[in-house]
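Supplementary Methods. Inverse-folding protocol.

Structures were first reduced to a discrete structure-token string of length 309. This string, shown here, constituted the complete conditioning input.
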């Protein structure tokens, strides 16, 4: 491209145009100041370890198998601990030195806690007698008493009924509760007074109330009731005061009952465990030994009335 020629020379302009042109030329253009750009200081180079070339990442081993192994070992340890120290061991139904092959007679005592019992199966396991909870205090009747009472008779098991005594309640009302609930017949075992609670009353008063219950119940059924209690309880509160009544003593974890049967102590039954296991009964059950033969046990039962001549 050639040199550009001014299309409007001043020589050809009119006077007014030249004046206007001169005024335009006299206008001062504002000066533009430019700042020099700041010099950028370069960052110092890092003098670290040379970077490793990228390669395939190594897979990290999972810790899950380790913790599974730990949990497994802990479970084994807990199982051993339970078996050795916490689990309630089942006790043999026959204490050492006693068996149905000898001169011992086995029995059980039950309540609603054993639920429905297969008494036919129980009979097949050499059980000859059973004491069944009937009443407690002044109002309570065991919800399984009637069923157990009927089924034991059907199975051919000698049966007896017991009352759980509460010392803070009137003995005559407690005796009435038992009498209104239990009908005994010839061949049944004598009624039982279960005494396990001492209460806060004076000891002479406590013994007097027990005696009142025993007298009222004996008057009704015509036979002396059996007293059931623990070995220590008998020694502390009852020994020497109720010698005319048959005794049923509970004493666990001993090879033999230290209390001996004498003319003064009418020891008849020993409850040797509360953790027996017998087919026909779910869970644990109290197991008992009668001191004597089956014939002697039947002699202890209520006898038929003697015919008048």
């Amino acid at each position: 491209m050639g040199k550009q020629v001014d299309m409007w020379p001043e020589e050809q302009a009119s006077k007014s145009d030249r004046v206007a042109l001169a005024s335009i030329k006299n206008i001062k253009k504002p000066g533009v100041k430019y700042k020099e750009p700041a010099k950028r200081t370069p960052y110092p180079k890092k003098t670290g370890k040379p970077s490793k070339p990228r390669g395939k990442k190594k897979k990290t081993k999972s810790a899950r198998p380790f913790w599974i192994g730990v949990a497994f070992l802990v479970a084994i340890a807990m199982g051993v601990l339970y078996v050795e120290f916490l689990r309630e061991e089942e006790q043999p139904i026959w204490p050492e030195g006693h068996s149905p092959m000898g001169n011992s007679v086995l029995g059980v005592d039950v309540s609603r806690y054993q639920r429905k019992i297969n008494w036919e199966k129980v009979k097949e396991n050499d059980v000859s007698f059973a004491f069944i909870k009937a009443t407690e205090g002044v109002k309570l009747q065991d919800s399984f008493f009637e069923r157990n009472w009927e089924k034991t008779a059907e199975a051919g098991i000698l049966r007896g009924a017991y009352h759980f005594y509460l010392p803070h309640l009137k003995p005559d009302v407690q005796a009435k509760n038992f009498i209104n609930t239990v009908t005994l017949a010839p061949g049944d075992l004598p009624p039982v007074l279960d005494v396990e609670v001492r209460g806060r009353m004076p000891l002479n008063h406590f013994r007097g109330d027990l005696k009142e219950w025993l007298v009222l119940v004996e008057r009704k059924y015509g036979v002396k009731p059996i007293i059931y209690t623990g070995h220590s309880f008998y020694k502390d509160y009852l020994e020497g005061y109720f010698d005319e009544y048959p005794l049923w003593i509970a004493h666990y974890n001993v090879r033999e009952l230290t209390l001996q049967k004498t003319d003064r102590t009418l020891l008849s039954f020993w409850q040797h465990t509360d953790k027996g296991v017998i087919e026909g009964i779910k869970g644990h059950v109290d197991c008992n030994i009668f001191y004597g033969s089956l014939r002697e046990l039947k002699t202890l039962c209520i006898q038929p009335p003697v015919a008048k001549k």
